[in-house]
Structure formats: C-alpha cells, structure tokens
Amino acid sequence: MKPIFSTALVWIVAALISIGAWIAFTSETAAVIAIGTVFLAAIHQARMAVDVARLNAALQKSLASDSPTSFPIFRRPLLAQLSRQCAAITEQHTRTRNEIHSEHLQRQLFEQSMRDGLVVLDAHQRVLSANAAAARLLGFDSTAARGRLFQEISRIPEVNSMLEASYKDGQRRHGLLEPPTAPGSIVDAAIETLRDESKQAIGALLLIADVTSEQRLERMRSDFVANVSHELRTPITNIKGYIETIQQIGLADPGQVNRFLEIVERNASRLGALVEDLLSISFLESTNSKERVTMGSTPMNALIDWVDAELGPAAEARGVKLTRDIESDLQLHANALLIEQAIGNLVSNAIRYAPRGSAIEISARTSEAPGNTFNNTANPSATRMALITVTDQGPGIPEKHLPRLFERFYRVDSARSREDGGTGLGLAIVKHIAIVHGGSVIAESVIGHGSKFSLIIPLANK
Q: SS3 string of the chain?
C-alpha cells in the first residue's frame, strides 16, 4: 500500500525537525517551531480521523441497505484507494445478498405453492424445511418443525420406518398409507436420501402426495368395469345358450323354438338398453357435457305428454294409473330430450315396483332453489327452480339404501331389478342430467308408504 505522506513531505518534516533540534541549542525560536510542528501534526491527525469516520459511516450504511451506497471521494491517495475498494466490495456483497434472498424467496414460493408435501432433512434427520402441504398432510406446524428431528413431529410409524431404512441402505422408499391426522385420506409417501462420495447420508427429501381422489377414481373405474362386464355377460350368455339349444333341437317343435326366441329377444333388448345407458352416462360424465348440451325454453306439459305416450301402455299392462298435477304455463330452461329421459327413468322405476291398482303421480310446480342444489352454471340468471316429483305407492326403500341410490349399478333388490329388465344405470343417469342442468335430484321413502323422487331443474326466464 502507498504511505500516508508523500516522500517529499516526509523529507520536509524530517528537515524541519532536524533544524528545530539544532536551533533548540542556539535560539529561543525552538519552542515555537516545536509547538508549530505538533499543531500541524494534530490538524493532520484530526482530518484523517474525520475522513476515516466518513468512510466507516458509508461502509456501515452500505452493509445495512439493499440499495447501492455512494462512498466519499478523498484527495489522499490511500483513502481514495480504500474508498474505491470498499465500494467494490459492498457492491459485490449487495449483489450476492440479493441473489441469495431471491433464490430463498423463489424456493419458498415453489415449496408453498406445491400441491404435494415436501420435507427436506439433514444428515441427522432434522427438518431443514417443510412446506404447508406437508404440514397439513402429516399434521404438524411447519415453522415449529424446523431444526427438530423428524420422528419428533411425525406420528406415522410407516413413514418413520421408511426413513430409517432409506438412511441405512440408500434405497428409495415408497408406499401408500392413511395418515391418522386425516382419516379417509390416502397419501403416497416417497423418500430419497442424498449421499456424498463416501456413500454417507447427508440428507433426504420426503415427498408426500394426496392421492385420495386418484385412488377413489381407480376404485370406481375397477368397480365400473367389473359391473359392466357382469351386466353384459348375463344377456350374452343367455342369448348364446338359447341359440345353441335351438340349433341342437332343430325346428321340430315350433312352440318351444318360439319361446326360446322370445327369451333371446328379451335379452337382446336388455343388452341394447344397457349399451344405450352406458353411452348416455359416458356423455353426461364427460368434462365438456354442459357445453355440448343445448338448452331452451321447454313447456312442462309437453314433457309429461311424452311420458304418457311412452310409458302409459306399460303402466296399464301392470294395472297402474299415471296421474299428473302440473302448474299451468310452467316452462323449464332445459334440454327437452334429457329431461324426458330423466322423468321417464323415474316413472319407469315407479311402474316397476308399484302394486297393481295403485297410482303414480307426476307433479311439477315452481319452487325456490333448495340449499342442496348444485351451482346453476347452465342458467346463472335463474333465481327459481321447478320441482318435479314422481310419487308412487310401492313398498318403499329402506333408509340405509337412500344415500347410494344414484350410484351406478347400485340395486336395492338385484334379482328383481334384473328380472324387470333394469340396467342399474337409470338413477345415475337422472342424477347426471340434473347436474348438467345445474340442479339436483332427491330421494325420499318410507317403508310401506311408497317413494318420492324430486328433480330440481331451472325455470326459463320470463
């Protein structure tokens, strides 16, 4: 580094001191020279102290601030160079600190925005960080967990065991489990340990994903495939069996052949109805079904006329009477074909179970939207709904079955439903037709006093 004083100044001061010392032996002016020299040195020292204090203040301000700080300019070479070096160092320090802060903020935003849980552990299985999803799924406070052993905050033995095993052998661990903090939920826990060059564990990542919906959908898919396979197999087996029998016995007995052909026809009709229902529910459950359904003003009486024309003969054959109680000029905001199908399914079920000589009433009237209806995305401006009810005088449905009536292939009496030609999809189709319209369907029943199904559909705007 350069000296505080230049070489010339050093020589001048040295010369003055030498002359002053020589005069001290010869003249009274020695005292004056000595005092002057001390005074000049004091002034120089004071200026140095002030400059150093300014430099220190600028340095402290720069270290405490996130924005660049200007440093003073000095005439002394040493202080000028020192000021420039401090400015460069603090600029680099500020840039590095901002980068670290930005990376930390990005990591926090990434972790907290993750739908899955993430826990980062050190070499001793202490929590370095944990996001909100992990805290929710495992049931702990993410802030209080930092620095603690994972086993202290986790109450899931399966996860703790997987973590211990992974730290020992370095193998990735994975498993489905039900956290005690969220009964009914299913999470997928995966543990990956990080190791150094000597194969020693230096940390681990624990990923926890809530797969409850995926598992539920998988079970539904499996159940659906199994049910469809069973429902298709029965009529196909019957058709194949009776055709083989006809081939074996020949046409020698026309009466028996005709009886077998009637059975084949009945099973073929059942097979066709099942395929039609499968296509209907597949369309209604598709994600864009609402956009593909055309809605319009539909008179309620016209829908009931269609029901009478289609199902009236079947009701008469069973000795059941269809009656109606429809509010005058009632107009629905709906797709006529789908509402016809929904009401037809409800009336068809009622006919199937109604005793001979009884009546089935179809009523429709204006009603305020009940609290359990679905969001009316089909007609957002509608404030009132149409309450369409189908009431029978059948044997009734046990209360335990009511919550599951609208599930696909759910039957209260499986044997009777199949004998009557039911596909097990009728009520599920009604439910999805209601959802597409922004409404809902409700089942009420009392054993021995019949059943009532209520379909809630938006009214047309006047």
A: CCCCCCHHHHHHHHHHHHHHHHHHCCCCHHHHHHHHHHHHHHHHHHHHHHHHHHHHHHHHHHHHCCCCCCCCCCCCHHHHHHHHHHHHHHHHHHHHHHHHHHHHHHHHHHHHHCCCEEEEEECCCEEEEECHHHHHHHCCCHHHHCCCEHHHHCCCHHHHHHHHHHHHHCCCEEEEECCCCCCCCCEEEEEEEEECCCCCEEEEEEEEEECHHHHHHHHHHHHHHHHHHHHHHHHHHHHHHHHHHHHHHCCCCHHHHHHHHHHHHHHHHHHHHHHHHHHHHHHHHCCCHHHHCCCEEEEHHHHHHHHHHHHHHHHHHCCCEEEEEECCCCEEEECHHHHHHHHHHHHHHHHHHCCCCCEEEEEEEEEECCCCCCCCCCCCCCCEEEEEEEECCCCCCCHHHHHHCCCCCCCCCHHHHHHCCCCCCHHHHHHHHHHHCCCEEEEEECCCCCEEEEEEEEECCC
Q: Which of 4-18, 124-138, 176-190, 418-432 has the lowest mean pLDDT?
A: 4-18
At the fourth CATH level, the homologous superfamily of domain 294-458 is Histidine kinase-like ATPase, C-terminal domain (3.30.565.10)
Smallest CA-to-CA distance from 193 within 110, 133, 121, 107 is with 121
Considering only residues 248 and 359, tell me which one the structure prediction assigns the higher pLDDT: 359
Tell the CATH topology of 216-285: Helix Hairpins (1.10.287)
State mean pLDDT over 271-295.
80
Whole-angstrom distance, CA of residue 36 vs CA of residue 257: 142
pTM, full prediction: 0.54
pLDDT of residue 35 exceeding 90: no
CATH architecture observed for domain 114-210: 2-Layer Sandwich (3.30)
- Rounded distance between C-alpha atoms, residue 251 and residue 16, angstroms: 147
Q: Where are the domains of the chain?
A: 7-106, 114-210, 216-285, 294-458
